[in-house]
Design brief:
607 residues, alpha/beta, two-stranded parallel sheet, 13 strands, 46% helix
Amino acid sequence: MMKFSPPRNSGLTGISEDSSPGLVGGNAHFNEEVRRKLKSSQTFETAQPSAKLARYADLRYTKFTINGFPGEKHAVFVPDNLTLSPHVFEQICLALDKEMPSMFLKGVSSLCHPTKLSTAQLRKCPGFSPLMSDVRNSLGIKQKGNQIQDSDISNKRLVDVVDHYLEKKLASSISSIALAASRTNVWTFSGPQISNFELLLQQHIENGETDAFRMVAVHMQDKAYMESTTARQLMKDLFDNSQVISNEVVDSFRPLLLQGDLWDPTINKANPEFAEHGYEFWSFDSLDQKMINGHPITQWPWPHADLFVLFYREENIRGAAEAEADWEFATEHWLDEEAANFLPQAFAPTCSVCIGSPTLGQSGMKRQLLQNITRACPVVIIDNTSSIGKQLGTAVQDIRNIWDAAPHTACRPFLDDGRASSLGHSCIPLDFLQALSAAKILQHAEQVFTASGTDDKLTLSDVVVLLDAVKRRPQAFRETVCVVDPLTESAHGAMKKLMTVFTSTQACALESVSSELQRKLAMRAWDLHLRLARSALHMWRVAVFLLASIALLLLACTIFAILRLWCELRDVLAPGSGGELGTRIGEWLSNYKTVLDVFSVAAPVIV
């Protein structure tokens, strides 16, 4: 007979479903255990700063437009001594009629202009051979054999055509990224220091070819903005027209029109290169170069954003009816990333879009990308771009060969000599992964792109770290890391890869992200567990009741069947047995033969 036992944890109590981080009521030990487990998952990199959490009523709001830029824009002002919580950020999204982002996209590159991204080393790469051949034929330059000549590499006319062609192809790939982002509720995120990711995206925004929602988080009184009279006045106009945020204010706010003189090269003459070329060209590639002074990209946040989260220093005035900004204050550093108290990874997974550059750009680019891959944070690498972009993209492609349709052929050049012979036709991808040689992968990456003269090049230890990360979480690597080739890959192929990254469940279950949003998700999971436990307990009780009822009916059916037979066969087999008492019982049962017959037939049917 089957044995039933009550489900475990059947004594759990209810869990609140509200948005607050409140835990289960009624069981103090259970609550303390949940708090301890959630708290232990926090890390230094992703924990919010120890500032006081902002309330929704502490924020101010302005809706505005910029002359010459499409669409209405939203500015949310947050005191810099407060920190936005996921709950308050969700309220902001609801007021703007937007869903919380499923992911943020952030460029990892430099300020090098998109028309200057190719180098002599990059143009010698095998991936550039078809492009170089086509450009050479279009210019009527004869080639001897299939090898790229040094004279071709230094040919200014040929190099200019290649650079502009690469810019167009990169812009097309970034457009595919933006299109995939708009379909999956992925937002782009920018800080005070933009990169050529925003510049490439800007080309398609101006043509109205992308609908991806764009967000900027900066300090309103950044030193770079406060040193510009025009930028300072624009910020002041925004703040002076702001109101305490509410859903009604957002819906009824009449947009403020800002003049676009700052971004008009015919008016803004502060930077000679911008006055002459606009956004079509500049010579600087980092923030510490003199030629960048006065350029609009350093005087105001990225103007193509849809949502501006502006942190500000409040003026200390006792008894003031409303908050006022301290316009005498400026941040300590120019375009200060840390002054904006906003960590995008605390609200949603953050995907890094790596565009290789002749200059290092962001410090520690290689370390940042390897850390993201190790933590299963999404990474999109644009192939056939300089430096770490080309080398890391090559290494990632070599590792991804283990999932190729013909892994023996694809992985053969990168297998360890001692393990290659032991791989049979029945081997799975993990077997090929264990047999990969870090030295051969690095050798291939260096053959494809010689990174001599750069500080951010791939090393053997980097490849070992990369392989260890893949071995630890192979499925996460497969879903969250992709390489997009702007020169050879079709838009359909790129979209397929990008949609896999942007919709990956591996990216949404990051071990390193500890935030209010994840605590809320954990509590909802516990709530679902409680409901399932209660349902299991209820079903167990019903099952026990039905089992007992069936057993009792079978027992009664058996007893009544025996009595009915006894009544029929008593006088034939044992006449006079039982004495006077037996005779009376037999006569009494004989009067209810019909009842016994009906019950004997009905009881099995009921069972």
